[in-house]
Amino acid sequence: MAALRDVSLSVSPGDVACLVGASGCGKSTLLRIAAGLLTPTEGSVAVGGDSVTGIADEVGVVFQNYDSTLLQWKTVYENVHVGARLGDGTRNPDEVTRSYLELVGLDEFADRMPSELSGGMKQRVQVARMLAYDPGVLLCDEPFGALDAQTKRTLQEEFLELLREDSTTTLFVTHDIEEALFLGDEVHVFTAKNPGRIEETISVPFDRPRFPKSAFERRHADEVVRQKERVYEVMAL
Amino acid sequence: MNAVPSPRDTGRKQFRQLAPIALLLLLWEIAPTVGLVPPLILPPFHEVLATLAELVVSFELFELLAVSLKRGLVAYVLAVGTAIPLGVVIGWKRTAYEYTEVLIDALRPLPSVALIPIFLLVFGPTETTILAIIFYPTFFYQLIGTIYGTQNVDQTLVDSMNVMGMSQRQLFRHVFLPGSLPGIFTGIRQTTATMLILVIVAEMLLATDGLGSFIMETQRNFRVSETYAGILTIAILGYLLNKAVVLVQRRVLHWSERQTM
User: Fold this and answer.
1) Which of A176, A65, A66 lies closest to A121 in space, CA to CA?
2) Cβ neighbours of A57 in B, within 8 Å
3) CB contact, 8 Å: A65 with chain B?
4) Would the CB atoms of B181 and A73 count as touching at under 8 Å?
5) In this predicted structure, what is the pLDDT of residue B259?
6) Burial track B65-78 (b if 16+ CB lie within 10 A, e otherwise)
């Protein structure tokens, strides 16, 4: 049985493309294919115009489950250092590690073990590791999906800032429509049907900067609600 | 977080732990003294203790211990040293697992004592035979523990390292080897107990030195007090070995929330 059919998607350099849909719609499958972790039975993936089989050098992934993506036996510093070391190697790994730990606010926790951190802090470690790796294309599989509302909000804001600074091309999978509207340049909406397929692509009408989120919400409350309704309609098709 | 136990709680716990042992030793002392058991079968505890003290003073006990521990350790290091790298590879690589799964399941339950005739055929009544008896099950316990430990390494973790282009060698060293340590330690704990049993059995059957041979020989020569002193030593040794492994495990696995105790 096919999980996806007739799906075509391209992300312009520097853009943030969000994939939204109900669970089981195939959005995570599409991300795994883009990452090279799954080989599609049909179809292809291209990065920067070049067709890719397997895992592309340019690609980095942030997973939802922070507990299973960190090396539990290494300190926070060492975990981020792994990303810096596996990166393109043009920068000094120690400096890179220190600067990103500072950026995500974990410089004081450099010597702690992951098991000593809260969920939000662990996810920050994963984000810092990915930034230290410095991918050309960033793939995010519901990175804030397992966090409490407060932590999620903080990390969304920080994430938005980081994206704006680096203007990294990003594919962001989420089931949270507001998150997609807040972070994305475009939102690709999956239907709940099987096999999964992108039913509609919405160009997000909000200007940047969208930071802080409270100001964004005040300014665009009505439009966010309208867009949300529309996405829900498409998802239900 | 656990509340810190008060000194009184600790005292109570220690009492509860030690009382049954004290009671057992008391029974041991009384039973032969009042004639419940002939002292030829069970000498009173104080007599065995005196014998043990003599064995310590004459240094004989340390010689016995050194011989037995050396045998155990050599076989143990050989078994653990080969089983851990092999187990990591089998647990990691699907094909390796498929090739070996049935083979391991078939060889593992075979008691190594059943192989003694074969070991004797091949190696003769030598030190090698003794080591082989200890090595065989120790190796398999450690192998199984390591395989399970490696298979427990999270696929998402492997994915996230693969995405960053980690090499196979780095994966082995930084992901699969440390990731399988909880399983490896489960294996080590089972292995330690088995190792001690087999050292004693092998020495009883094939050696003229070591603790196993000592308890057998003294019993044959009606020096039962010494037999009991030997058994007591083995009991204490087993207890201490287990404690030592747990201690090392806590150290090495300090990062792990779910230590298999």
Assistant:
1) A66
2) 165
3) yes
4) yes
5) 45
6) eebbbebbeebbeb
